[in-house]
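Board notes, transcribed. Complex of a protein with uridine-diphosphate-N-acetylglucosamine.
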Amino acid sequence: MDSIKVTGGAELHGVIPISGAKNAALPLMIASLLTDETLTLANVPRLRDVALLTQILSNHGVDYSVNGKRNGQDALDGQTVHLTAREIVDTTAPYELVSKMRASFWVIGPLVARMREARVSLPGGCAIGTRPVDFFIDGLAALGADIEIEGGYVVVRAPNGLTGGRVEFPKVSVGATHTIMMAATLAQGETEIVNAAREPEVVDLAHCLKSMGARIEGEGTSTIRIQGVPRLHGAHHAVLPDRIETGTYAMAVAMTGGDVLLKGARADLLNAALETLRATGADITETPEGLKIYRNGNGIQPVDVTTEPFPGFPTDLQAQFMALMTMAGGASRITETIFENRFMHVQELARLGAQIHVDGRTATVDGVSELKGAPVMATDLRASVSLVIAGLAAKGETTINRVYHLDRGFERLEDKLSRCGARIERISG
Ligand SMILES: CC(=O)N[C@H]1[C@@H](OP(=O)(O)OP(=O)(O)OC[C@H]2O[C@@H](n3ccc(=O)[nH]c3=O)[C@H](O)[C@@H]2O)O[C@H](CO)[C@@H](O)[C@@H]1O
Ligand SMILES: C=C(OP(=O)(O)O)C(=O)O
């Protein structure tokens, strides 16, 4: 199992290219199941989750090919992939594959919409809470599907096709919004999704579906309306930049000090996080090439944060922000409202000398003047990278074990950081 060794203390200076968003690429790839024509996606990141989803889609009969590397392309440039689901050969998504990644459950929407049946294993994914699938089940039932749970599988049938309906989510869910929106594109009649997720990745998916011929209105607001169409066609779509990767590297620079251009990053995708970072003392400027992050020698100011659905502060940046706050000049309170078990990084940050006290869904972080390197364990994707951020500022050596979590969602992290002066290396084994 690979680990990552970080020797702390170096400032970050240079350019970090921002990859396509994992959380947009995954539903976009799944959308290929909705048509028998080719969906071409540009700016797809090279990630373990993308590779795993490719395997799952192949199992359903999707042909997958990647453009070769062209002259002048950098190893960090996104890849262009072509997905063709000419014929769906299998409507089962098996436990062995779906249990490794939550987003793979979302195939249930397109499969039932196009094939009128699907059998999908209950999902896995990052262990950050119970993560039930009741909104998906209720949503598909509102579109006329019959649903049963059999042997750990959700079995959904709509022998006469799905019909449009009203779906109101009790709580904002990104995955359920993606799934019902995709399913509704091929349903008969109109679907209204109320309390829909407003995340940029939902908007990106809606844009792609529209270029495939879907009729969707209201994406980016809490009410999305979809008029079903009999069929969708192929399209070309570029995945939007990863706002979580952007925020992560911005926090790394705020932690170490330095001056970095996050190339291709878009401020409008993470305004709340950028405002919070500014309040900690980081300078952030928008340029035509991306976002510039700068922190001078002044200390890190403590700032309180509460995670919220978009446009609020994202839960996927909570762990990274906590790492930054461990070295703030005072106490900050971080409240997690999306997932009930997303503080597993706390005990690992404590190994580096962080002072954090958790009470229910709020962590109080008392900033310290120095962290000290230690061996630590990555417990989930964003927790892993919070340990890298802390390690970059800690005195001495930090070894992060179980980095396969990190490889799910960060493309060539050690290359991107070492190009900017970080002393970081992967140890294979
Ligand atoms: C691949 C991907 O895009 N993952 C993101 C997606 O996950 P994901 O789509 O799984 O997260 P959701 O937005 O669905 O989860 C939000 C909340 O709703 C609850 N819930 C969800 C569905 C359901 O049927 N019942 C239910 O109770 C969840 O347990 C959680 O408490 O959005 C999360 C919230 O921004 C992010 O942290 C994840 O990185
Ligand atoms: C929690 C995440 O991913 P997933 O929903 O796939 O577990 C994440 O991207 O931070």
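The chain has two domains: 3-18+241-427, 22-238. The chain is about 30% helix and 25% strand.
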